[in-house]
Every structure is written in C-alpha cells, then in structure tokens.
Amino acid sequence: MKGNAIITQSSQVDEEQQEQHQRIVKAGLYFGIITGLFLALSFGILLGISFQDGMYGLLLGLGLGLAVGLVCGVFFSLCMAFLSKYQTKKFEPLRRQMAREHRIVFEGEANHFMNKEGVGGWLFLTPEFLFFKSHRFNIQNHELTIPMSLIKSATPCKLSKFATGLKVEKINGTWETFVVNRNNEWAVNINNSIVK
Question: Are both 75 and 110 inside the same structural domain?
Fold first, then answer.
C-alpha cells in the first residue's frame, strides 16, 4: 500500500514539475520580450546617433536589439528549464528515500537564503519537520532540519521584488527564508502542520 502511495505522490510531483517547467519557459519568453525591447531602444538610439542617416540606424538598432533580446530570453528560459529538470532528476533518490521513511506533506525545489546566498536545493515538509538539502552546485552546501515544534509560523513574502518568498519564523524569533514555487501553498501546509 505504501508503494502505491509513493507512486501516486511521485506522479503528482512529476505533473507539478511539468507545470513548473512550462512556467519557466513562459517567464523566459516574457524576459526575452522585455530584454528585447530594452536592447532595441538602446541599440536603436546608439546606431541612430552613429549613422549619418539617423532613421536607418534607429530602425536597424531597434530590429537588432529586439531579435537579440528575444533569442537571449528564449535561450535563458530553456537553460533554466533544463537546470530545473536536471535538479529534479538528481534529487529523485533522496525523494524516494524520504517518501519511504516519512509521510511527505509537500515538497519542491527551493533556495534557502544563508549569509546572503540563495542556496539551491530541495525542500520537504513532513508532519514532524521541515527539511532542506542543498545541491552540490553551491558555495555553502548544507542541510537544514527544523522540527515542527520549533516553527511559529510561515508567511509568503516578496524577495527582490518577486512574490516567491517564504519566511519561516521559529519560536525563538529567528527566521529562515526560502524561494519556492507556490509559496502560498507552502505557507498553508506549514501552518497546518505546526504543533500547537
């Protein structure tokens, strides 16, 4: 029976990962459009000033900047989607081990802020604890386990103007800060699991 639960949970996480990869590609396209517009204006103005015929330089710069920005944005989003899939596969053994040993309430990719570095890894929530394990491509590799009895609350927050932050307040008044997908769901699940 527990094996079926692991398979069901794994397929649910796979669907969530697929949705996440689609969001990354979509965000990259938006990034590409914004970057393209910025580069189009920059190149357009610079080339417009440098050419004798200002209008030709302006149009050339606008077209070049827009094309370069779109290509860079798409390339960036594809790289991010690849990295996300790669990390998901690298954490699969740990995910299986955690599912065998604990009831996983929620899990996903995360960055844990430690000494101003966003350390990438995987975050697990069980009824007993919140557990983070970094991947090896970090300067500050580490694991963090916070027993639920030491957590006071979890709150979604903005970090660097992005609304993907999660602040976990401990009963001693200190905070742990993460960047996660679906930070509102993380906060609800953590707050529902807090030992009262």
Answer: no
